[in-house]
Amino acid sequence: MSQQVKVWDAPTRLFHWTLVILFGAMWYCAEQGGEWLQYHIYCGVALASLLVFRLIWGLVGSQTARFSNFVRGPRAVARYVRGELPEHEAPGHNPLGGWMVVAMLLALCAQVLTGLFSADVDSYLYDGPLAKHIGGMAESVTGAHKLLFNGLLGLVALHIAAIVVYRVVKKQNLVRPMLTGYKRMAGEKPRLHFSHGALALAALLLSAGGLYFALLR
């Protein structure tokens, strides 16, 4: 018999959907070019703050949000692939999904980091906040920034494809739990720990404030 189980806290869900919005906005602004690059930079700094928050939340946040909970070794991955891993042992991200999250976070960090050092090679009016510190190397970093974006799009496509496969083949809706926080699970109900929202707010203020003073002040 299946039951509704809360698996995702509000901070994790808000992180996920804010990330989606910022990623789309950055892509749009970059494609427009010109004065839109200023908004591209603003979105990039906001995304950097969001990523720092997620790294902090991955250490001190709710159980299903912690890296220690979903970054699993090859044995757990093999058990999941063979269908031998009970759902209550991986109530949030499954072992494969956990590694996808790690890959996405690393790719996004690399994308944001190169963006901070990139130069506006057309007008040099909208360089990244840290481009001035590396001089002529900023143009090379810009090339890497654009190249990394193509790889990031590949990961996004893979992520979406996995969601579709789970919905069609395994009859599992991965989107709804990330909207509502609740997942329908069969078998034993996991006992999960959720951190207080005040801790998430403190982590967000720390990440946003730190990056503001480091980059924009």
UniProtKB/TrEMBL annotation:
Domain of life: Bacteria
Pfam families xref list: Ni_hydr_CYTB
UniProt entry keywords in alphabetical sequence: Cell membrane, Membrane, Transmembrane, Transmembrane helix
Compartments, record wording: Cell membrane
Main location class: membrane
BP GO annotations: respiratory electron transport chain
Residue intervals passing through the bilayer: 12-30, 36-57, 96-117, 147-169, 192-215
Membrane topology: Multi-pass membrane protein
UniProt domain Cytochrome b561 bacterial/Ni-hydrogenase: residue ranges: 7-181
Gene Ontology molecular function, alphabetical: electron transfer activity; heme binding
Family matches, as Gene3D superfamilies: Transmembrane di-heme cytochromes, Chain C
InterPro entries according to UniProt: Cyt_b561_bac/Ni-Hgenase, Di-haem_cyt_TM, Hydrogenase_cytochrome
GO cellular component terms, A-Z: plasma membrane
Protein's UniProt name: Hydrogenase
Protein source organism: Chromobacterium alticapitis
Lineage summary: Bacteria, Pseudomonadati, Pseudomonadota, Betaproteobacteria, Neisseriales
